[in-house]
Structures are given as C-alpha cells and as structure tokens.
Amino acid sequence: MSQNETNDEFIYRIMTTSKYGGLVQAFVIEAISRYVEEVASSPVSEHGFINMETWRNIALDLQDELAKKYGIRAKAPKVVQGGPG
Fold it and tell me: Which of 35, 55, 62, 63 registers the highest number of CB atoms within 10 A of its CB?
C-alpha cells in the first residue's frame, strides 16, 4: 500500500488482493448498495461543502448502475431534484 495510491488503484487493490478472495467484492458491492439506498432515500439538504442534491443524484446514478448489473434496486422510489450541480 502506498499513500500515493490513487482511488482507482486503491479500489482495484482491495477488490483483487483480499485474503478473502472474491468474497470481498460481494462485500464492497453490498456496502455501496446500502449507502446508495441511504442517500437516495434521504431528503435533500445542505451539509458542509458537499451539495447534497448532487450527492443524492450520484446515488441515484449508482442505483441505476447496480440495477443494470446486479438487479439491485434501493427500496426508495427514484426522485430526481435538479441535475448535476
């Protein structure tokens, strides 16, 4: 591990070199799915330097990607307020 590791390199490393093998990939996908569900079903509000409407729209985009790839769909209905911001 290097502190100079990019985010892409970090994700690749944790997804391919775990002592738990491919099971770590299921864990990471499940973690992403749960966080996407939490963000997608939360009301839009401002928090610090992150525009929460944009954060939520990212979650909704990932929700679509998870649904396409794995059939995973968050329980909350998809409601988009605005666009990329």
Answer: 63
| Tokens at 45, concatenated | 């509000």
pLDDT at 44: 73
Q: Report the alpha-carbon distance of residue 57 to residue 47 in Å, rounded.
A: 15
Contacts of 72 (CB under 8 A, 6+ apart): 29, 33, 66
Q: What are the distances in angstroms from CA 32 to CA 11, 36, 38, 77, 82? A: 12, 6, 10, 17, 23
Q: Does 63 score more than 80 pLDDT? A: yes
What is the CB-side half-sphere exposure of residue 22 using CA atoms within 13 A? 0
- pLDDT at position 46: 63
The single-letter code of the amino acid at 34 is R
Specify the DSSP class assigned to residue 44.
Answer: P
